[in-house]
Amino acid sequence: MTHEEHHAAKTLGIGKAIAVLTSGGDAQGMNAAVRAVVRVGIFTGARVFFVHEGYQGLVDGGDNIKEATWESVSMMLQLLSSLKIHGQKFNMQYLLKALPRC
User: For the domain bounded by 3-99, which CATH number is listed?
Assistant: First the structure.
């Protein structure tokens, strides 16, 4: 990737927003997918938002929608891997509830 292409990629999302929500079911690779969407969105200059409480949270709005940060997904895979090791069942709705509501 040339310097110009790199700069162009970093500006693709400027002025755009992405909402991240899940329907709550377990799905292999969902944690990594959510983290990737957040990070790529932020890298390209888009504003990224977590929607808590799934589709109902999107409809209700308010405190159910919070802006995501790079840090909010930094330990995502490590934390969830340790939960799996200890045998706890969780899904993406649980994860989004656990994320800080700043």
Answer: 3.40.50.450
